[in-house]
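Please discuss these two lines.
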Amino acid sequence: MSETVPELLAELATLEDPRMREVNERHGDDHGVNLGTLRAIAKRLKTQHELALELWATDDTAARLLALLICRPKSFSRDELDAMLREARAPKVHDWLVNYVVKKHPDAEALRLAWLGDADAVVASAGWALTSDRVVKRPEGLDLASVLDTIEAELRDAPDRLQWEMNTTLAQVGISHPEHRARALAIGERLEVLKDYPTPPNCTSPFAPTWIAEIVRRQEAAAAR
């Protein structure tokens, strides 16, 4: 017997942890459900695209995260994904939508290009997240010099989420493309974006020059083994 949206919402409500919600809300995510538990529910439900659509329509953050785990990415139209991104204001929903759904969609490149120049900085940040993915996995056809031109001109004054994704792209260009590494490092050093970002012990700083240097060092050490 298939489970209904009201039943799943009730289950999610019982899993709410007030302390976890408090932590998540500091990052803009209004839910308190453990993500590992959410993945276990998704594993139980398996792929159910129609149920995913119903869960998304509830506008509940935990339900939307669950929807993204059980949907069928290729069953969405390009317009549906565009509308969903514009509705996805919780950072975790935005992140999962881009990484788990859009990246698997046949129109991912068309959406990347459409979103990059969007006036909404949150939407534009999704375009940059997709660009970063292409820089690493499918750089053929990307004009990396032009990408760096845009980053150099716009990174420092970009709103937070957009700045984060542009900075990630800057670092990935420097890491994955040695011919552009010196320029990527120079841009990072000059702009100093995220230079003082609080970084936990044993984690790599998001400051692009530090990030590039550390990952390249690890890659070279691994290659020398």
In short: DSSP finds 13 helices and no strands in the chain. Residues 121-137 form the longest helix (17 residues).
